[in-house]
Amino acid sequence: MMTHSHDPLRITHDRAAARPIQLETHGLDVIGDADRRGTPRMLFWPWFGANVSVLGLGYGAFAFGFGISFWQALLAGTVGIVVSFLLCGFVSVAGKRGSAPTMVLSRAAYGVRGNRLPSVVSWMLTVGWETALISLATLATATVFTSLGWGGGAETKAVALMVVAALTVVAGVMGFDLIMRLQTAITVIAGVLTLVYVGLVAHHVHWEAVKAVPGGSAQQMMGALVFMMAGFGLGWINAAADYSRYLPRDSSSLGVIGWTAFGGSLAPVLLLVFGALLAGSSPRLSRAIADDPIGALTTILPTWFLVPFAVVAVLSLVGGAVLDIYSSGLALLSAGLRVPRYLAALWDGCLMIAGSVYIVFFAGGFLGQFMGFLTTLGVPIAAWSGVMLGDLALRRRNYDDGDLYRPHGRYGDIPLVPPLLTLAATAVGWGLVTNTAAHWLGWQGYLLQPLGLGGRSGAWAYANLGVVVALVLSFLGTLLLGRRRVRAQEALAPSPAPGEEFLNA
């Protein structure tokens, strides 16, 4: 990861401008205590900037896809977003207790090499997110070109895909310097232009139509709530400690939790409200958002604002994809791949392009694929989160930095209980979710009938219970089975700082 000179919580524009952009060669470097500074309040900005995107407007239509009313969508969406970012806040506490990225701190629970399993899952999640974002950017570009009469067919999609993929891969390979410069500009512009968008399309909101949207069942509300959790906080939780690791270890834990949750939740909740108002006012727009969220939102804009909005919307998606490709490369390193960081990012970029080609040119619609992806990977990520949160709750002392990199240190190499608990919780979780987006995932939901929940076509089939159940089971299991192991670890004297030979363990 990054050293003191790359601290994202205090880097200034002047300093960034003065330093030439260079290829980053850092991998899983240790952040020393002397390089930690700042206050929890500073966490608001990276979390807010990472989640202020016009894509958030599309979640209003996604919520209606579960067959619920506006007020139900608002309740389910708000609770799902806030709770999921509160979980991110709790995991962020691990960052200020340790000196490493989230997926390295996870070694305290899983062991140095046992942690490779959740690292692989984290890698899959970030690659999936970057693929989804690049696909959205491509589809949005094609929609805008069609609206302007400039084409919009397969050729336009192919060119757009090449351009946005190239931007993402180049930034991901170059590393932190280029990413931070891009992200700083994109965050400010996207926030301002989103407010302009809201002002320009507010007249499309028709409250009577929104109120007339029929309500749904408790099971449908649960499905929307879990979908929001998976789409927001649970999509970030495997990187939640990456910002807070730059804070001093005596920083307020409540402050870390509060500012993380507030910064991550504020923009998505506000965008969800307005997005639901738009989608509820027009069933046609709501259906269009399901296939092409960003592109559909541009169709109600005045022509003079269409191009600048589309450019900013695409750039905000590229900005998110850049962060994902960077994190996915680091996840590969944490999983044990011994290559330079930039080669790991390049490999992930190739996978991202292949996945985007499938979604853009061959998949039948975006929403089904996206929901299937979030639900399927949301279960093991929730199971990992439960273990991580349970292990963190049991600890009374800071992490030992050196032993996070030593297979024979206090955290062990491959302890049996955490991986087995994760696999068991995932197996139960997959038995309680269904996925119709891909036929090869039709085996999921195998516990719905035996548990009397109506089977794969019953009322609970699309409630996504498995995500919540996996998190709760792994959390309670860790509290029950991990206490003695944690106490034994914390009774040992501090170990020496790790040398270079341990950093890529």
The residue-averaged pLDDT reads 84
What percentage of residues falls in helices of 4 or more residues?
55-70%
Number of DSSP E strands: 0
What percentage of amino acids are in beta strands?
Answer: under 5%
Radius of gyration: 22 Å
Biggest beta sheet attributes = none
The poorly predicted ranges are: 1-18
Distance between the termini: 14 Å
**Number of helical runs?**
22
Which word captures the global form? Answer: globular
Structural class: mainly alpha
Order of SSEs:
HHHHHHHHHHHHHHHHHHHHHH
List the helices and strands and how they pair.
Elements: H1 13-18, H2 44-51, H3 55-64, H4 70-97, H5 102-105, H6 107-110, H7 116-147, H8 154-174, H9 176-201, H10 207-212, H11 218-231, H12 233-236, H13 241-244, H14 253-281, H15 283-291, H16 293-298, H17 303-334, H18 341-361, H19 366-394, H20 417-430, H21 465-481, H22 483-490
Structure description:
There is one protein chain. The chain starts with 12 loop residues before the first helix and ends in a 15-residue tail after the last helix. The radius of gyration is 22 Å and the shape is globular. The longest helix is centred in the N-terminal third of the chain and has 32 residues, at 116-147. Helix 4 (70-97) packs parallel to helix 11, helix 8 (154-174) packs across helix 17 and helix 17 crosses helix 18. It has helices at 13-18, 44-51, 55-64, 70-97, 102-105, 107-110, 116-147, 154-174, 176-201, 207-212, 218-231, 233-236, 241-244, 253-281, 283-291, 293-298, 303-334, 341-361, 366-394, 417-430, 465-481, 483-490. By secondary structure, the protein is mostly helical.
